[in-house]
Amino acid sequence: MADSGDGVNSTSSGKEPRSTLTDGPVTDPASNMKDSKSGALKKSSRYRSRSLSASSTDSYSSGSSSDEDDVSPREKIQKTEKGFTDFCVRNINQNAFGRREIEIAEQEMPGIMALRKRASDDKPLKNAKIVGCTHINAQTAVLIETLVELGAQVRWAACNIYSTQNEVAAALAYAGYPVFAWRGETEEDFWWCIDKCVAAENWQPNMILDDGGDATHLMLKKYNAMFKMIQGIVEESVTGVHRLYQLSKAGKLSVPAMNVNDSVTKTKFDNLYSCRESIIDSLKRSTDIMFGGKQVVICGYGEVGKGCCQALKGLGCIVYITEIDPICALQASMDGFRVVKLNEVIRNIDIVITATGNKNVVTREHMDKMKNGCVVCNMGHSNTEIDVNSLRTPDLTWEKVRSQVDHVIWPDGKRIILLAEGRLVNLSCSSIPSFVVSITAATQALALIELFNAPPGRYKSDVYLLPKKMDEYVASLHLPTFDAHLTELTDEQAKYMGLNKAGPFKPNYYRY
Ligand SMILES: NC(=O)c1ccc[n+]([C@@H]2O[C@H](COP(=O)([O-])OP(=O)(O)OC[C@H]3O[C@@H](n4cnc5c(N)ncnc54)[C@H](O)[C@@H]3O)[C@@H](O)[C@H]2O)c1
C-alpha cells in the first residue's frame, strides 16, 4: 500500500505482523489506557492490512486536512442526519465517498455478496451481537454489512491504528453502525475504541470477530463476566490464533473459537494466488523494473514462494530457488527451477525475494556480494528474513528514493535497492485483490454462523477449524464468477468413492 512508510507495516518486534495485530504480547488494555505513548506497539503490520488498497490509503481520507487531523475524533461532536451519535470516526461528512468505495469493493467480492443474498431471508445471525475488531476498509465494510443483513447487531473497532479508511468508517457510521475507528489512533484511542464496542448500554455481546486477538484479550481481562457469556470467537490472524491455542492450553478459554487463518480457502488463496499477483505489482510500482530475462532468486518454495515463482517465470525471469526441505526442493526442480544455495548465485542476481517465514535468510554477507542495483525484498510474515539491521552500519549510506524504497550504498558506490525495509513488500507497496478478501470474509461469516447456530455440545471450549464442507461452500460461492461448472457425482460414483454427493469431497488431511 502506498502509505509512505508511516509504519502501517512495520513491526517493532520483528515478528508476525500480518493481518494481524501487534507482534508482541498485547499490552494490558487497562495499563495502556494510563500509560499510552505514541502507539508504537501497534506499528506492526498485519496480514489483514492486506485488504487495504493502495488507492484507498492514498485517497480521500489521507487527503484530509491536517488541521482536522489535529483534533481527536474523541473531542468532536458528530451526528448523522438521522440523529445517530453512537460512533467515533474522523469525519462523518466523508461518508458519501466511503460508500462509493464500498460499492466498488462489492463488485469484486462475489462470494460474500452471494452469501448475503442467499442467507438474507433466513437471517442466520438473528440475535447475534458481534463485537468486531478488524481492519476497517472497503472490503471489511462489505463483510460488516453482510453480517448485519444476516441479522446480526454489530459494534466495530479497528485492529490496527493506521489501517482505517476514514471515509469507509464514516460511511458505516452514517448507515447507523456503531463504528469506533480512524486512521492514526493513539495506543490509548485504540483500546478506548475497542472498549466502546465491548461495553455499551443495553449491550451484551455474544460473538467476537477478531483479527489479532485484541477484542478477545480486552474482554477476557477487563470484562470477564461478559466474556463468559460469549458463544463463540472467530479469529483470523496467525498471532490471534496462536494466542487462542495458548489460552486453550492454559485452560483459560471458556468459549469455542474458530481458527479461520488455517482454513484451506484462506491459506491457499491468500498465500499462493494473492502473492502470485501482488509480487509483480509490488516490484513494478516501487522500482519500474522490467522482468524479462532478469535473474531472480526466491528463498522458500512454499505456497508464497510458488506463487511468486509462477508469476516471475511467466514474465520471462530466470528463477532460482533456495530451500531447506527436500520435498519442496524436488517440487521446485520438477517445476523447472534450479535449486541452489544463495551463495552460489548471489553475485549475478537482479532480484532477491524471501518467502520462508524464517529469519536471517539473507545476511549482510550475501548483501555484500550482491551486484549493483540488486533489488531485495521480503514476502514472508516477518521483517527478520532479511537482516536489515546489519545494513545499519556507518560504512553504508541509506538514501530514501521513494516511499518504501531505499538505496543502500556501499563505500565503492555499489547500491542495493531495499524495499519496505524488509517488511512484507506486497502489503507495503501493493494492493490486495478484493476477490481474495471475499474468500476470507465469506469464511469468517460462515464461521460466525456455524458457532452461533451450533447445537450445545458440538463445540467445546477449544479452537476449531471450520468444517471442510464449509470451506467447500466458500469456494463454491466464488465459482459463478468464472462460469465454472462442477461435475456431480453419480450415485454409483459416490458409492464407489465412499463419498456423500454433497461433500465433503476430501478427507481433512488432504493437502490440495
Ligand atoms: N506476503 C503475503 O501476502 C503473505 C501471504 C501469506 C503468507 N505469508 C507469509 O509468507 C511466509 C511463507 O508462507 P508459506 O505459506 O509459503 O509457508 P510455507 O511453510 O508453505 O513455505 C515456506 C518455505 O520456506 C522454506 N524455508 C524455511 N527456511 C528456509 C531457509 N532458511 N532457506 C530456504 N527456504 C527455507 C520451508 O521449507 C518452506 O518450504 C510465511 O511467513 C507466511 O506467513 C505472506
UniProtKB/TrEMBL annotation:
<dbReference type="GO" id="GO:0006730">
    <property type="term" value="P:one-carbon metabolic process"/>
</dbReference>
<feature type="binding site">
    <location>
        <position position="323"/>
    </location>
    <ligand>
        <name>NAD(+)</name>
    </ligand>
</feature>
<keyword id="KW-0520">NAD</keyword>
<dbReference type="GO" id="GO:0005829">
    <property type="term" value="C:cytosol"/>
</dbReference>
<protein>
    <recommendedName>
        <fullName>Adenosylhomocysteinase</fullName>
        <ecNumber>3.13.2.1</ecNumber>
    </recommendedName>
</protein>
<dbReference type="Pfam" id="PF05221">
    <property type="entry name" value="AdoHcyase"/>
</dbReference>
<feature type="compositionally biased region" description="Low complexity">
    <location>
        <begin position="50"/>
        <end position="65"/>
    </location>
</feature>
<dbReference type="InterPro" id="IPR036291">
    <property type="entry name" value="NAD(P)-bd_dom_sf"/>
</dbReference>
<comment type="pathway">
    <text>Amino-acid biosynthesis; L-homocysteine biosynthesis; L-homocysteine from S-adenosyl-L-homocysteine: step 1/1.</text>
</comment>
<keyword id="KW-0554">One-carbon metabolism</keyword>
<feature type="domain" description="S-adenosyl-L-homocysteine hydrolase NAD binding">
    <location>
        <begin position="271"/>
        <end position="432"/>
    </location>
</feature>
<dbReference type="InterPro" id="IPR000043">
    <property type="entry name" value="Adenosylhomocysteinase-like"/>
</dbReference>
<dbReference type="InterPro" id="IPR020082">
    <property type="entry name" value="S-Ado-L-homoCys_hydrolase_CS"/>
</dbReference>
<feature type="binding site">
    <location>
        <begin position="302"/>
        <end position="307"/>
    </location>
    <ligand>
        <name>NAD(+)</name>
    </ligand>
</feature>
<feature type="region of interest" description="Disordered">
    <location>
        <begin position="1"/>
        <end position="77"/>
    </location>
</feature>
<keyword id="KW-0378">Hydrolase</keyword>
<comment type="similarity">
    <text>Belongs to the adenosylhomocysteinase family.</text>
</comment>
<dbReference type="InterPro" id="IPR042172">
    <property type="entry name" value="Adenosylhomocyst_ase-like_sf"/>
</dbReference>
<dbReference type="GO" id="GO:0033353">
    <property type="term" value="P:S-adenosylmethionine cycle"/>
</dbReference>
<dbReference type="Pfam" id="PF00670">
    <property type="entry name" value="AdoHcyase_NAD"/>
</dbReference>
<feature type="binding site">
    <location>
        <position position="426"/>
    </location>
    <ligand>
        <name>NAD(+)</name>
    </ligand>
</feature>
<feature type="compositionally biased region" description="Polar residues">
    <location>
        <begin position="7"/>
        <end position="22"/>
    </location>
</feature>
<dbReference type="GO" id="GO:0004013">
    <property type="term" value="F:adenosylhomocysteinase activity"/>
</dbReference>
<dbReference type="InterPro" id="IPR015878">
    <property type="entry name" value="Ado_hCys_hydrolase_NAD-bd"/>
</dbReference>
